[in-house]
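To whoever is on call:

I kicked off a structure prediction for a single chain this morning and the downstream step that reads the tokens threw a length-mismatch warning. I double-checked the sequence; it's 444 residues and nothing unusual in it as far as I can see. Pasting both halves so you can look.
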Amino acid sequence: MAVETSLLTKKRTHVRFYVLLIIFIITAVNYADRVTLSIAGTQVSKELGLDVVDLGQIFSAFGIAYLVMQIPGGWLLDKFGSIKVYSFSLFFWSLFTLLQGFVGGLSISAAVLSLFMLQFMLGFAEAPAFPANARIVAAWFPAKERATASSIFNAAQYFSLAIFSPFLGWLVYAWSWKHVFVIMGIIGFVLTIIWTKFVHNPFESPYASREELDYIEQGGGVVNMDQKKSARQGPKWNYVKQLLSSRMMLGIFFGQYFLNTITWFFLTWFPIYLVQEKGMTIMKVGIIASIPAICGFLGGISGGMVSDLLLKRGCSLTFARKAPIVFGMLLASSMILCNYTNNTVLVVALMALAFFGKGFGALGWPVIADTAPKEVIGLCGAIFNMFGNVASIVTPLLIGYLVKGLHSFNAALIFVGCSALMSMLCYLLVVGKIQRLELKKVPE
């Protein structure tokens, strides 16, 4: 075996692409675990006697924990490294997903409380995942490949909805809502084993050749990010103040909040909107919900590719990043037009167009790769993700109250569509020139 490994590493390998593939798959499962309750929501509500406000509160439990844990999660990543923290994160979010499948045997009040707490713990465990993705891509990919790699792992959320929405919808229809959580938990445990066996830091990987490591390092990859010395030091907390004092970074952070409002509408209320507002069956919703998700996936990949193409053709970094964002957010706002038609085909087409636009303009993670100070990539990604996921609390709750108070989703769609326009304005009016932020050094 040692001889085979030695022979393998004599030529340039492409381990970074296998690492990206594993990140992509795990991120898809990460988002599937978030959407399980949404897919099962109608059946759970009937069995446990929940109204839309109760369901909105349970949805928001994930967002509360996810938000609170962002900065601690980023600190853990910068201190202990991406690989180790990700392993624990993946194991525990899979456990909390699986346990939700067993609350049906409890009394109604106990089941509701248990769902709330398990959604809270799910958010707690998943918090380091996206900042870890950004750190791993920064370590494994040279600068000229990093934007495309970031767009690929970010597009996993749309791929997840496209693949898992019909699968989970079928599980709810054919078996019961409880099986959705159990099966997704088991899938997570299998991926935990794969992660610990095959994913390493660049210089610790038994599979990567010296030639590949040199190529990554010479191209700007931060291959030494998680060496023991820097891990012990961890980030300086004064850096948080510097990040929050930068107009450019604040524009990026708030832009992600408005963008994530669209994400959380699709993750939580979209299937319920199709059932309650458009009268579709759960089985049909599982299939229909995958159409906008496929379009979002295609938009997510093509947005990154267009941005890189603009760079290669000599456009400035600022234009190459902002142009797809502006175009994408304009398309995303088109979902408001669903309020003016009852034609199911047209509604699905408009939602597909909106989700394509959302994906096309979702360049926040590549922008973070362009702008985050090298000393605190994990922490900067965590703050970015924290701002973005304020929407995971606000969106489910606000839409729940809007639907209950107005007896329709019309105001909810206006709210989400206007959020897309606000994200566009953050990049146009606040961010300014996109460039890497240089931090003032903090004395030891």
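Update from on-call: the warning came from a stale cache, not from the record. Cleared it. Sanity check on the structure: Confidence is low (pLDDT under 50) at residues 1-9.
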